[in-house]
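Methods, example record. To illustrate the input and output format used throughout this study, we show the complete record for Peptidylprolyl isomerase. The sequence lines were provided to the predictor; the line carrying C-alpha cells was produced by it.
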Amino acid sequence: MKINALLAAMLLSGSIAFAQVDPVIMTINGAPVTRSEFEYSYNKNNSEGVIDKKTVGEYVDLFVNYKLKVQAALDARLDTLSSFKKEFATYRDQQIRPSMITEQDVENEAHRIYEDTRQRIDGNGGMVKVSHILLMLGQKATPAENAKLKSRADSIYTVLKKGGNFAELAKKFSDDKSTAVKGGELPWISKGQTVKAFEDAAYSLKVGEISKPVLSEFGYHIIKKEGTQNFFPYDSLRTDIIRFIDARGIREKIINDKLDSLAKSMPAGTTAENILDKKAEELSAKDSDLKNLIREYHDGLLLYEISNRLVWEKASKDEKGQAAYFAKNKKRFKWNEPRFKGIAYHVKDAADVEAVKKSIKGKAFSEWADILRNTFNKDSVIRIRVEKGIFKKGDNAVVDKMVFKKDTTVKALKDYPIDATFGKVLKKAPEDYTDVKSQVIADYQDMLEKEWVTALRKKYPVVVNKDVLATVNKH
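The corresponding predicted structure is encoded as:
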C-alpha cells in the first residue's frame, strides 16, 4: 500500500510539474487556455512591423473576445459542418502532409523517374550529338523558291565535301541563329525531341559523317554527327529531377502513394484521413508552434463563419436594419461641406440635355442608371455618357464648374461635346441611408459586433490568472 501511495504521489507530482511548464492563463466558460496559446497569438499579432502594437494587458480583452466568439461557434456546432471539416482539413494538411514522407522517399521517386527515362532512351538508340546548318524555308514558299534554296544548300554541302570547315560555314550561313554562333552545335538529343526527317537523318549517320541537305518543316538541314552515347549519369541530373518533382507537384503524388500504402497495411477501414489525424496529434504533441498554428486554423475558420452569419453578412443584407440605424444616428453622417447627388452627363445632340432630365425626373435615384441605359444607350447605340454618384468638390470637373461654380477647366469628351448636370445639392447631410450605404454598413457592423460581444461576456464566464499573465514572455 505504501508503495502504491508513493507511486501515486510521484505520478501526481510529475503531472503537476508538467502542468506548470505550460500553466493555464485563463478559462473561457470553464475551458482552459494555456499560456503558450496566448503567447503564440500575442507574439504573432504584435511582431516587429505591426503599427498598432498592444501591451500584454491591452491584448487580453482582444484575445478574450476572440475566444468567446469561437466558443459561440462551437456551441452552434459549426465545427460539425461538412464544409468546415473539409476546409479545416485542407489547411491542416498543408502542414501535416509533407511530414508523411522523407527525403529518401523523394530520392526513390527521382531514381524511378531517371530509370524510366534511361531505359526509354537507351532502348531506343541512345543519344546523339549533332551540329547543323539550317537554310530556312517559308511555309508558303513557291516551288521556284524551294528549288533556289535547295541549290544553295547543295552548294554548301559541296564545299563541305571538299574539306570546308563545318563550324565556320554554320556561323556564316545557318538561319538557326541560336546554334550558328556555336558552329551549329545542338545539345544532346534523343528520339522524339526533333522532327522526324531531322531525327532519321541524325541517327542514320556515322560519327563524323555529314548528311546531304535534308528537307524538314523548317527548311533544309545539313547535319554533321559529332558523337553518340547512352543517357546521362544519375548524379549529373539529380538536381534537375528534384526540381522537376517540385515543379510538377509530384511530391503530392508521393505523399498520396505513401498514405495509400500505409492505409492498406493497417486494420480494415483505416483511411488516409485517419492516418493524417493521428500524425497531426503526434506532431502537435512534440511541437507547440505547430499545435498552435493548427488551432489557429481551426478557430479562425469558426470565427469567420459565425462572424459572417451574425455580423458581416447580416449587416450587409439587412436593409431595414441599415435604414433604422441611419435614422437613429443621422448626426454621425453629417458632412462638413455640401454634396451633389445626381449625374454629370455628356451628349451629342443638344435636344438630349432636356430629354435626359425628363426621363428621370421624379424617379428614385437608384433607378436612374437603368432608365438612362434603356432609354438612351440601348441596342449598342451610345447616345450619352453618364457619371452618377454623390460628388463633393474636386470629385468631378463638370460638377465643380456647373454646380459648385468653381473656376475650373472641363476637358471636352470626344464625340460628346455638350456637358450637363441633373440632381440636387445636399448641404449638410445625406437624405437617405443609401447615400452613404458603405459607411452605414460598416458602422452597423461595428454596432452588431459590440452588442454580440457584450452578450457573450454575460453568457460565458471568463477568469484570467493574473499571476500567470505576468509571466508572459518572461519565463
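Annotations derived from this record:
The beta strands are 24-28, 31-34, 127-136, 214-216, 219-229, 339-347, 384-391, 418-426, 462-464.
The first helix runs from residue 2 to 21.
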